[in-house]
Write a structure and sequence with these properties.
The protein folds into 3 domains: about 5-85, Uridine Diphospho-n-acetylenolpyruvylglucosamine Reductase, domain 2 (2-Layer Sandwich); about 90-200, 2-Layer Sandwich (Uridine Diphospho-n-acetylenolpyruvylglucosamine Reductase, domain 3), CATH 3.30.465; about 215-300, Uridine Diphospho-n-acetylenolpyruvylglucosamine Reductase, domain 1, CATH 3.90.78. The chain contains 8 helices and 19 strands. It has helices spanning about 5-15, 45-60, 105-115, 130-135, 145-150, 200-215, 235-240, 270-290; strands at about 20-25, 35-40, 60-65, 70-75, 80-85, 90-95, 95-100, 120, 140, 145, 150-160, 160-165, 185-190, 195, 220-225, 250, 250-255, 260-265, 295-300. The strands form 6 sheets. Strands 6-7-13-11-12 form a 5-stranded antiparallel β-sheet. The chain is globular and about 55 Å long. The structure holds flavin-adenine dinucleotide (FAD). Flavin-adenine dinucleotide binds near residues 137, 141, 179, 222 and 223.
Length: about 300
């Protein structure tokens, strides 16, 4: 490790905000993955912006993590810097606008919206991601989607500064956005919501929570739906119809409760999950001629 590089990072974020060889299984909902060389948690938006500027200048590999709920990290870990923004989690409400920092939990923002009588995020309330991760993935469920409620996104622009991307610039599509092709660091997201009836909003959230509990294997580590929805099909149904319910590789299994989910039965490695993903893709393609594309993001070498 270059000591000048490490010293500069320390000067930017503070020594108490840096971990070396951090076990990434602690930061992913799959609960798998090896160590990241450097794991940095900036305390302020300015520090995050300075850090990413320095990393871009020095062309070091870096990866921004949200809540790790859509992420598979290699068992070999990651030879670079992981930027964790979970400490940036302020949420402010002004009329029908909610501004949330990137590390705030999406579910918390949805519940605050409900308390304020603001509608539009009921379907998003059960998604276990951060605001930043959800903005990147254009997360959605039960008829709601980030693209419907995001007004703008503030991103780091280097040396403590930031710029605001408007909705049009976000290029939202199904589980995709400009952030999938351009490496921006999201600092905060502005949501624009509709006035609604508080009790109706809360009731919708309750129904969605109930439905998730019934249909999804929430008691086991996973990253939600493994694959994007192929046009005209449902990934989970294709996997089930291919006879893969309960299909297992090492400690990774196709959930019997929801075939779209891969679960960690307790002793899975990321390699098990990766191999299972490939096995599913091959078998579904052989049976139905449909190519399943992973929705989950991957970090490190597989
Ligand atoms: C039980 C379960 C249920 C789920 N249900 C749903 C669902 O109904 N609908 C749905 O859409 N998803 C669902 N997911 C998947 C996941 O929760 C979402 O994709 C979520 O939006 C990911 O957010 P995250 O903060 O965990 O992001 P991460 O997984 O940490 O990261 C995802 C991507 O965002 C990038 N990123 C994160 N923060 C930033 C930032 N500040 N700046 C730039 N890039 C950033 C990462 O680099 C990565 O590319 C589910 C997952 C689980 C485990």
């Amino acid at each position: 490790m270059n000591s000048f590089f490490l010293k500069t990072i320390t000067d930017l974020v503070g020594s108490d905000r840096i971990l070396m060889n951090e076990d990434m299984s602690k930061h992913t909902t799959f609960k798998t993955g090896g160590p990241a060389d450097i794991f940095v948690s900036p305390r302020t938006e300015e520090a995050a912006s300075d850090l990413v500027w320095y990393l871009n200048e020095t062309v070091r590999d870096y990866f921004i993590i949200g809540n790790g709920s859509n992420l598979l990290v290699s068992d070999l870990g990651y030879r670079g810097v992981v930027i964790d923004l979970s400490g940036l989690d302020e949420i402010k409400v002004t009329g029908n606008i909610i501004t949330a920092q990137t590390g705030a939990a999406l579910s918390k923002v949805s519940h605050i919206a409900a308390d304020e009588g603001l509608a539009g995020m009921e379907g998003l309330s059960g998604i276990p991601g951060s605001v930043g991760g959800a903005a990147v993935m254009n997360a959605g469920a039960y008829g709601d989607e980030m693209s419907m409620v995001v007004k703008s996104v503030k991103v780091a622009a280097g040396k403590g500064s930031s710029v605001v991307l408007t909705k049009r610039e976000l290029k939202y599509g199904y589980r995709t956005s400009v952030f999938r092709t351009h490496k921006y660091l999201i600092l905060s997201v502005e949501f624009e919501l509709e006035k609604g009836d508080r009790d109706e909003i809360r009731e919708k959230i309750r129904q969605n929570t109930e439905s998730r509990r019934k249909k999804q294997p929430l008691d086991k580590p996973s990253a939600g739906s493994t694959f994007k929805r192929p046009e005209g099909y449902f990934a989970g149904k294709l996997i089930m119809d291919a006879g893969l319910s309960g299909f297992t590789v090492g400690g990774a299994r196709v959930s019997e409760k929801h075939c779209g989910f891969i679960i960690n039965t307790g002793r899975a490695t990321s390699a098990d999950i990766y191999d299972l993903i490939n096995e599913i893709r091959e078998r579904v393609y052989a049976r139905f001629g449909v190519k399943l594309e992973p929705e989950i993001c991957m970090l490190g070498e597989f």
